[in-house]
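Usage example:
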Amino acid sequence: MSLERIFNAESVVVVGASRDEKKRGFQAIRTLLEGKYEGDIYPVNPKEDRILGLKCHKSIADIGRPVDLALITTPARTLPSLLAECGQSKIAGAVIIAGGFGELGEEGKKLERQMVEVAREHGVRLVGPNTSGMISVHSNMNLVGLSGIPKGDLALISQSGNMALHLITEAALKSQKGFSYYVGVGNEADIKFHEYLEFFTEDPKTRAIVIYVEGLRDGRKFLQQAYKTTRKKPIVLLKSGRSVTGAQSAGSHTGALAGISEVAHTAFRRAGIINILNSDELFPVAEALSSLPPMKNNSVAILADGGGHATIAADVLNDHGVDIPAVGEATQERLRKLLGPNASLRNPIDVAGATDADPSVFAEAARILLRDESIGGLLMVGLFGGYGIRFAERLKFKEEDAAHQLGKLVLKTQKPIVVHSLYNHARPHSLDLLRYYGIPVYDSLEIACKCSATLSQYGRHRSDWQRKSTFVFNWGHDAKDEGNAMIAQSRKEGRGLLLEHEAKRLLGLHGVKVPDERLAKTAKEAASFAKELGGPVAMKIVSPQIVHKSDARGVRLGVEGQDAVTQAFDDIVAAALGYEPKADIRGVLVSPMAEPGVEVIIGTKIDAQFGPVIMFGIGGIFVEVLKDVVFRVLPITPKAAEMMLDEIRSSKILSGFRGKPPIDRQALIELLLTVSGIIEAYPQIQELDLNPIIVRHDGLSIVDARLLLTK
Amino acid sequence: MSLERIFNAESVVVVGASRDEKKRGFQAIRTLLEGKYEGDIYPVNPKEDRILGLKCHKSIADIGRPVDLALITTPARTLPSLLAECGQSKIAGAVIIAGGFGELGEEGKKLERQMVEVAREHGVRLVGPNTSGMISVHSNMNLVGLSGIPKGDLALISQSGNMALHLITEAALKSQKGFSYYVGVGNEADIKFHEYLEFFTEDPKTRAIVIYVEGLRDGRKFLQQAYKTTRKKPIVLLKSGRSVTGAQSAGSHTGALAGISEVAHTAFRRAGIINILNSDELFPVAEALSSLPPMKNNSVAILADGGGHATIAADVLNDHGVDIPAVGEATQERLRKLLGPNASLRNPIDVAGATDADPSVFAEAARILLRDESIGGLLMVGLFGGYGIRFAERLKFKEEDAAHQLGKLVLKTQKPIVVHSLYNHARPHSLDLLRYYGIPVYDSLEIACKCSATLSQYGRHRSDWQRKSTFVFNWGHDAKDEGNAMIAQSRKEGRGLLLEHEAKRLLGLHGVKVPDERLAKTAKEAASFAKELGGPVAMKIVSPQIVHKSDARGVRLGVEGQDAVTQAFDDIVAAALGYEPKADIRGVLVSPMAEPGVEVIIGTKIDAQFGPVIMFGIGGIFVEVLKDVVFRVLPITPKAAEMMLDEIRSSKILSGFRGKPPIDRQALIELLLTVSGIIEAYPQIQELDLNPIIVRHDGLSIVDARLLLTK
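Running the assembly step on the lines above writes:
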């Protein structure tokens, strides 16, 4: 169901309306009246007749006409029955301010579930509970009690009322931007992040979406929606709670779980979200992305009026992965004519005094640079805006002229210009003019660079979009009967896992080449298998009770010769029984020794926020000591599998090292994709670990496999 | 010679004085007059009689009385003779504005050397050339032409005039801080960074030193001075030019080389310098460190009035390595009484509305927190300063009361308070009051956290100071005659390196246990040595022409048995001659095979900026693929050697891994210290590489050694 009647409600009932100035039920009505809300307001309180000049109704039913939205300010326990009343009056949604639900533990969770049940039954959607409220800024439907909210095209979704205040204050003090909507998601008991996102994606008043989140309740649906949203509009997101202390603090005030940062960050990036780590950058980046065209390539020209700023800007852009290519000879020639012999012309361009007498020269230099096809965008850093302050007052008119020219240049070329000015703080008119044209101006060089970089990042996402994952995961797709049967048998035996040879058999069912190995029940069988295989063999205990085979001294490698194999069989079984006397010994797995190569690991698990995820990394010492692994939310595309190989720190090891030939990347990519398919096929799998896998230049061997089932 | 007469000059001659308003020689005099410089001003220009009402002298000699300082604005080529004149008039120093020296290549370098020679001969010290000038702010001796410089206690040393303008503007717009001195170092032809640093260390008007640097000309002397300075005063430094493009840009405007970032950063930290990577943080950190007492421990309490801010602050402090411990029960109890049941009391402390009616409650909460002995400092984040703006105007008086209390609390407890306020931009009086007491207020949460973290960092440096390196390096200390003889012999033979066995012999001279190995001249000798050693041996070609022995197939490992050794000798020699027909074959080194262990590497080199540096890392694949190495400027202390072992990413490998016992850390620490001593002993060594070294739980073996001599 669309959230249209909630966000663009034409009438609001305030349940818990009050004459007490300190109460939310009073403040809410005052804010709506003062803000000149365009719709109807119906206070409800059985004990009052009139509040702030409005007739007060005894109950919701009493209003006697259809209402779109209810703001409920009464305590938690009143909610279930109130929501039933809302439903009977065909109210589309309710904003629930009260805390005392899921964030307070089991009792609260129970009440929350009960409330949601009633709401669903009556077709009422819920914002919150435990929310600061919501605001439809253009229609002045302010259900928060926060005044002075500038109107504009940013939709704000926040898990903290405090951060909403932060961003709104920042917008008002430092920009010409404003908001279309604000919603505090609270506990997300009913409406979740992705549903808000969906609404704002289609909303014509919204040009970009800003999100502050501490933990997601349904990360996968969020990713799926974000992936669709970012085709049309940028999403700028800050996720906090990454530190332990931070996570505790996040937990204490919203009751949400902070997610695994690494998985979240990669997934956000793939969904095209601009993922912000530094809170200072959240609003500025949203400002830039909602005001400027994204860049069509990754090459920025830096235009400076001083060497220090040019050097720092180049450092920071470079850290963000932006190219700062030397501009072409023709462009340099044009710049030379304009700026004279002292200027640095390659990139960064340092005017070296050529703008001192006339800062409108900046506009001409910008025109020359943006005419250069290799340049995707411009970053202007330094004193612009301050020439009229620092040097001579009359120069401010030149700066204003330049601002008009720069603004029109962006419109014409559809290439973004971002400006850093040392004098931003003094609010010269020229800089307000730039903002009028949608050119953001920052007093921080670092932030200006970050904004330039995200314009490039978002531009690349828009052009790359088709190749990204949709995050759509089809449980049960393409399962094999034999696979399901093995899993069922394992469950029947009360086992939480498949045995090693079963897990490998499952892989085999899906086309993975697994070692030619046999389960020997007796020493004699083992010897006979080893003879068939020829050469040295690996021998491993197989028992449902023994998960960590090495700990039980249940593994022998490189065993060769009939006697040695017989002896090893007996030793392994004895050691295993010594380790776990009640172990049900199914036999000893006899496998050919894998040829040497590079050890890698592939693992999957079901993440609490994002569902199935896959991990890839170099095995052995690398995974244990350096944790050199990368994650992806499943399913993965061939492109994603390839990128995983490149993204580990020690990826060089895969591409031929110390004179060794490169490994068989294709085999590894195929294995990653097959594992992705297997996890999709069997919702019964909790974790699948292939470790180690030995990859060579001509194929790979899966040496060990571990498969845990869901509970 | 002290720079006293330069920085506190009582008279200034302006050479190149002019009546042309556009010329520096006019502007400089105007600035001195307008700024009411306390000393005497003597314009010099043979063609003028009076400039701006001052008598103009035909020459320096013409002045006829002693002058302290000369500002020279004439072109590069005029300098040598002008400096001779300065010397004859006993002028202590000259500020040289002109470019056209070392930054322009060989011709310019020559002129620069010539100029410095004349200056030294006549006892004149030089600021610059290619500098924006210098300012003694308190005496209004402004030789830059930059007006509106706030007076205060920060000394600013910068390699970019642009960045100086940046910092001065930031101070004026955003703080109550100001400057004691500014100097633009320019090309550092004579006076270098460390000499300025020395002067400001002793200067009573300076409380902290701010440095912007792109490349250092004498990094070691800088470190030595910084190490002394930071005992007394903080140094806050930003080094840019770390990216390639950035480095080009830095090079183009100052002609200095950008240094190896990794070496520089570690060395700066050891010298107690606060090394800033984000330019937004440079001034704020200087403000905090020059106004507040440093922290006595690493534990910060966060005091917030909203969950979002608390969560983000905890994240950021945690990223900076600051502890945010739960406060004690007694403290929590006191806070509970003050803030009521809804507040989060552990840390971060979230007042949860308890300050809404009276923001002076913040001061009381701060008092309770700073009384807690486990807490070293306080970070207040959120809305303070804005209660009078957002909620009710009368609350601003409560905020002002709180500001007075907080200010006096810092004075009394000597624990720092740093404040973030969303309303800083609006400049409420309460926040100016905080600044009056030296409590800095930032609108950036991230920067407030950084400042808190650096107060802790600087505090730790002050208490740890004795253990740090002095960076004093005694070339030639403790050299052995035999070592010098080997090096001399090598030079005599025209070799740029010692042979492997010679390098090991040198190590042995300094007490390092080296393998019992012999140089065999014939196959027979080799066989006999191998027999004596017993067991398998390693055999390696020894020839001055063959540096990379493996490339020449000049290495055999695990050779066992008389016939095999004889055969290997012949093969190695044949292969070496095949690889390099003119090779002078000195023989084949026969060594016992090293027992297995962890491969590490120790290397040294002479860095262009910092002199001798040492590198340590895990060897093999780690050093080649992951570059998992750390650097230190030599000499190192035992503590530094120990820290190097811990600082590599894969340090876990050294502390016992996969059930192996920990390696012999002591042996490795001793080896690092001995190598440090050897480099100190022989200034003739350019590079020493011990690679690999195999470390076991009971000692280590140096398998290969490579020693290059200086040219």
